[in-house]
Amino acid sequence: xxxxxxxxxxxxxxxxxxxxxxxxxxxxxxxxxxxxxxxxxxxxxxxxxxxxxxxxxxxxxxxxxxxxxxxxxxxxxxxxxxxxxxxxxxxxxxxxxxxxxxxxxxxxxxxxxxxxxxxxxxxxxxxxxxxxxxxxxxxxxxxxxxxxxxxxxxxxxxxxxxxxxxxxxxxxxxxxxxxxxxxxxxxxxxxxxxxxxxxxxxxxxxxxxxxxxxxxxxxxxxxxxxxxxxxxxxxxxxxxxxxxxxxxxxxxxxxxxxxxxxxxxxxxxxxxxxxxxxxxxxxxxxxxxxxxxxxxxxxxxxxxxxxxxxxxxxxxxxxxxxxxxxxxxxxxxxxxxxxxxxxxxxxxxxxxxxxxxxxxxxxxxxxxxxxxxxxxxxxxxxxxxxxxxxxxxxxxxxxxxxxxxxxxxxxxxxxxxxxxxxxxxxxxxxxxxxxxxxxxxxxxxxxxxxxxxxxxxxxxxxxxxxxxxxxxxxxxxxxxxxx
Length: 483
Prior knowledge:
By secondary structure, this protein is mainly alpha-helical. It is built from 14 helices and 4 strands. Helix 1 (17-50) runs antiparallel to helix 2 (59-75), helix 6 (209-218) packs across helix 9 (256-270) and helix 7 packs across helix 9 (256-270). The protein is globular and about 80 Å long. The protein starts with 16 loop residues before the first helix and ends in a 16-residue tail after the last helix. The relative contact order is 0.11.
């Protein structure tokens, strides 16, 4: 319904001229004070809610300014507005919705640089003593910095984890988890079902580095934050807060989910830095590029590594197809039947079993007993520098690992305890004997007690020598080879 037309009749109001002038000044003062008070309160609320570094307005000077402004406004009907404090939204504008490739590349690099800072930021943990780099040490190829089977964490840094820390390197080609992964070297062949394959973490339960970062941040035995709100609050108060605003805009801390997404995105971008996380700079890589040669022992080890009737390591830790540098991984989940590790505190409970793909940490496949005991195979790059091996960290020496592979079934007494009746408690880290069917029996496994292992002690040394050629840092892969 349209409004009725405003009346043009001027109603007579009898007021002395001096009284009219005084009331006009008074109204101007009141209106100005209200305007400054409201805008100042809004700015202060915005800064406090966002944790901005811009200082709150000085209310005393604002009052004085208001009085002065009111007085001058009586003489000047249209005074210039006074410059107020810059709000967090003005200081940190939102990133553009569209941009060119050059901007996209620079923005990605800037987000990765932010991720590098957050990766080492101990305020991301409840204890304030643990960062991502504490367990995934850059100096140790983003793996554990020591030989502990599992690392310590929690709010007091005294809680023991349940799994060994994996390396974060060479994860860029890991496929998303699939229960029925089709993989064949024959083009167009879709008939080969490799079974459960892919995903990050030992049980493949997440597919992206940003989602993976969420796990330790909220695990009570690791970084031990109670919820994402506590993480965001700590970051909001940290030196990195304005760096996040500069890249994601002043509204990034408006909600916890929005801020947490920015944090995990930055961590993911950092882990996509090829120079740090997949440099392909080992002696093996240099040899492939013709910059050096493997020695005789290393060459023998490479042949034993690949031979199906010897090490057969390449059946899971595969060489690449021609024209590619290998990751030495097929990304599959496999049951190895490892010995139980008494060094893990959780294993003191005889009813506790970490059975990987079927739980207890992964929750969506607990009704698949055929998956129990399956864990994702890791890359073998930089394996020569690790001090802890497999998901339960039961071994601490690379040669011991290779020896276990070739003698698990021929000499089980070396690795497993005995039952009360004197029999060997083989595969004692599985909760039921029926799950023993899930354990891989392909070579070099599958022998019988007393059989000859597929590798001799000297051949084990050769394989270890080859594995040591996979350590990054042998040469600068960023430089082109000399002509």
